[in-house]
């Protein structure tokens, strides 16, 4: 499944266009490599996503083409969330 679609279906990011924009800015890595919105993701992949001043690292547990809100959280497991330091300090 494409990265941007996974982020939307899993409800990590609400809109696919926003997921594409974030990925194309280089703010997402898959298994340590910078990912584009068209990158393929699969079970077991580790994603790192920079949301503003926060870094979320998660593991993909399940790929589902369409999902209900309550099932979306079963698509991934959050490994850690870190606060990022401001570059201006």
TrEMBL record:
Query: Can you state the subunit structure given in the record?
Result: Associates with stalled 50S ribosomal subunits. Binds to RqcH, 23S rRNA and the P-site tRNA. Does not require RqcH for association with 50S subunits.
Q: Please state every residue range assigned to the domain named RNA-binding S4.
A: 1-61
GO biological process terms, alphabetically, are: rescue of stalled ribosome
Keywords in UniProt for this one? Protein biosynthesis, RNA-binding, rRNA-binding, tRNA-binding
Task: Spell out the InterPro entries in the cross-references.
Answer: RqcP (IPR025490), S4_RNA-bd (IPR002942), S4_RNA-bd_sf (IPR036986)
Q: Which organism is it from?
A: Weissella koreensis
Tell me the superkingdom of the source.
Bacteria
- Family classification: Belongs to the RqcP family.
**What's the protein name?**
RQC P-site tRNA stabilizing factor
Q: What is the lineage of its organism?
A: Bacteria, Bacillati, Bacillota, Bacilli, Lactobacillales
Which GO terms label this protein's molecular function in UniProt?
A: ribosomal large subunit binding; rRNA binding; tRNA binding
- Its job: Key component of the ribosome quality control system (RQC), a ribosome-associated complex that mediates the extraction of incompletely synthesized nascent chains from stalled ribosomes and their subsequent degradation. RqcH recruits Ala-charged tRNA, and with RqcP directs the elongation of stalled nascent chains on 50S ribosomal subunits, leading to non-templated C-terminal alanine extensions (Ala tail). The Ala tail promotes nascent chain degradation. RqcP is associated with the translocation-like movement of the peptidyl-tRNA from the A-site into the P-site.
């Amino acid at each position: 499944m494409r990265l941007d679609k996974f982020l939307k279906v899993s409800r990590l990011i609400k809109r696919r266009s926003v997921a594409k924009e974030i990925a194309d800015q280089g703010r997402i890595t898959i298994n340590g490599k910078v990912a584009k919105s068209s990158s393929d993701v699969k079970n077991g992949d580790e994603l790192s996503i920079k949301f503003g001043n926060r870094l979320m690292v998660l593991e993909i547990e399940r790929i589902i083409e369409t999902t209900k809100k309550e099932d979306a959280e079963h698509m991934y497991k959050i490994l850690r969330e870190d606060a990022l330091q401001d570059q201006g300090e």
